[in-house]
What we know:
By secondary structure, the chain is α/β, with parallel strands linked by helices. Among the domains are: 3-11 and 74-161, Reverse transcriptase/Diguanylate cyclase domain (Alpha-Beta Plaits); 17-70, MutS, DNA mismatch repair protein, domain I (3-Layer(aba) Sandwich). It has 10 helices and 8 strands. The chain has helices at residues 11-19, 44-48, 57-63, 74-88, 118-131, 144-153, 166-170, 182-190, 196-200, 216-220, and strands at residues 3-7, 28-31, 39-42, 68-70, 95-100, 106-111, 137-141, 158-160. Helix 6 links the parallel strand 7 and strand 8 (158-160).
Amino acid sequence: MRVACLHLPGFPLQVAVQDRPELAGRPVAVLAPASPPALLTCSRAARAAGARPGMSPAEARALLPALVLTPAAPGRWRQALGDLAAALAPLSPAIDAGGGDGAASPSIWLAVPAGQRSDRFARRALAVAEAHGLRARVGVARDRFTAWAAARTAAEPVTVVTPQRAAAFLAPLPIDLLPLREEIRRLLEAAGVRTLGEFAALPPPSVGRPAGGVDYRELARGKGPAGLGTARRDGAAPPALPTRRAAPRRSPAGGPSGRQLVLAS
């Protein structure tokens, strides 16, 4: 089985510009659906002025008085994502929507039909997204995590990772891609473990199996589950789906260098 992940960077901003075309090219930020209010995603013009996700509106406006703030619209985002998933559904025997980076940059996973070339299928999926006025990137791999990492990190619109290349492709990527608890992440960083390859090389006693039975070391080796056999079309993400977290603050230099870590997961 091959899995294609269609990743939608800055999705709320893309939807906002669809609804208000006059915002294109302007410094714009979309607010997160949380309290206190914070920036969820920002346009390139806003980032160029120093605005970043997580900032308060006051902090962002102090840097950029002309910043246009648009309110959170989770209902509209769900509708747009559902419409796209419905349009993609005829391409694939199984589809799963609603995971990835959450509301900021959601992803849709599709099973690549047997007999179809991965790159051609990915470009068909991209064409559907473009027909809906959305920018996307697609990664294809044997498992969900590698496909998502490819779509999330690669610069090209389409990236196909074969099973033979999966471990080497994932090795230099940051461990921020794994949904590790922050205290575990800090321990790993203090030990000099910052990439998926370094994480995958840890000895077996170091990292236990997390709740739900997903072995993160196997994910980092490109041997995670495909997870589309029980795919749902209701926007819910399956339990095995990693979600990118905001990068934590660095641990102070001079931490332990040994890698015989015993981590509760």
